[in-house]
From TrEMBL:
Keywords assigned: Signal
Signal peptide: 1-22
Keyword Transmembrane: no
Protein name: PAR1 protein
Pfam families from the UniProt entry: PAR1
Tree of life domain: Eukaryota
InterPro entries: PAR1
Residue intervals passing through the bilayer: none
Amino acid sequence: MASLKFPIFLFISSLSLHASMAEIICEDLPKDVCAFSIASSGKRCVLETAADKGGDVEHQCRTSEVVVERMADYIESDECVAACGVNRNSIGISSDSLLDQQFTAKLCAPACYQNCPNVIDLYFNLAAGEGVFLPDLCNAQWSNPRRSMVDLISSSGAAPGPVSSEATGLFAVEAPAPAPMW
């Protein structure tokens, strides 16, 4: 009986070590904090739909293959979710939201753009996939809120591919004071 106590002790110790390290595993996250989280591996967590054995559709948190440079073990704050206008219950994330002027206004607002690097990194890469440089889109939003992503794409042509935020100074950009809306 004494020999069984040691393996049980090791098992319990490994659980407490895992918990004390606060490792984030997407599949272990509740669905209400899954979206906009980053696992300890540096990969983004995504909310997906899956059918259970009974055929009912449920949401599950999964690890994507998208690696976030210089960020891991991160769950986006409720403040950033609200400030950026994103939804934790989104199934997948699309660049289509960048076409929505209200969404872009929230994303480019200083409360989001300067304080929520995880969300900005995600949409920076989505915009780049569409040939748009997010700082240019935000500058257009700040200087002329009526100018949409479609206008930016058609007037400037395709932007260069994604560049690391370190090289572009993405998070060092200061938003100008919003123009009066009269």
